[in-house]
């Protein structure tokens, strides 16, 4: 009946083409119908069955649409199976249609495998014990590259009806080009293996790489790049292989130790350093932190000086306590008593080499916290206290003179906004000078 209808509507010399077009249209409708039934019926039934199984291991498969990808294979198989039975279609056309269907199947399977790998990575990130420290996203991306490369070879071999091994043998001449194209990916893969195996870098680590402007926390590690969120919330993308070929600083050790270093110096005016008089030493004994120190020094120096004087030495050779040494002892005792300073880590109060900006008195210790805000608060509180305590020991900080100091040195008074004589700045009446 359909054939007689075509004979009536289409001229006789064009009927073979009409039959072929009609057959192809019917094949397209059959493929669409098979795809619709598979996606809306079979996939939903399988998803419902998976939801009914114990555990939650199938959520990633459904979430990444692995089953929906696989459903696209069905219409391609329908086209492949029915292409040989199409009437009034040349053999060469049937072969081309079947080859295209097989190539499409290969591509769909590759996409399904890619989605499956994404589901595996999502499952690992959700359930893996070390997922945050050792991500596998880079390896997943490398596996995708291999899958798509094999799929490309199979698809091309299917379309041209040649063996995939024949195509692979021809890639030997293109190996240099492929190595050049995928150089960064290969180097990054090797670097990722080294970084993960040696536990050199994890997501969440605070790293510093001045050469590339990176100073912040690692937020993502993939095959070719490592993303670092800097302190100003900008994102620096670092090639993975650069982390192996160049040096970078990882602050994870500081965070795991539980202590963050303070290393800062007070610049002491050297002209304020002097010996303490006996009455000054006694006055400083009211400070509980150095009372024992002063008593111990008094006993030590008394014994030493009596020995020198008994030997007939000049009194100039006797030892005396300095205000700087006493202040240094006070700072060390203060830090040891501070609740936010670690006593089980290195604690030093030392003098550095004097320079044109004064005598540096360096404080080297570790706080009991690694949080940036808490660390800065503790550090500021310590130096606030020390700066306010310096005058008690007769010491001064070195500070380069500013405009006010230079004016005072030259005997010039500070400039005034208002002229003398009236509060509103008007000119006061002039009083004749006395002769």
From TrEMBL:
Keywords linked to the UniProt accession: Membrane, Transmembrane, Transmembrane helix
Membrane topology: Multi-pass membrane protein
Highest rank taxon of the organism: Bacteria
Organism: Lysobacter korlensis
Region of interest called Disordered, as start-end residue ranges on this chain: 406-435
Similarity comment text for this entry: Belongs to the MscS (TC 1.A.23) family.
Cell cycle listed as a keyword: no
Main localization category: membrane
Record's compositionally biased regions (Polar residues): 424-435
Entry's localization field: Endomembrane system
The Mechanosensitive ion channel MscS C-terminal domain, residue ranges: 331-395
Annotated Mechanosensitive ion channel MscS domain residues: 184-252
Name recorded for this polypeptide: Mechanosensitive ion channel family protein
Membrane-spanning residues: 20-37, 70-89, 95-117, 138-159, 165-182
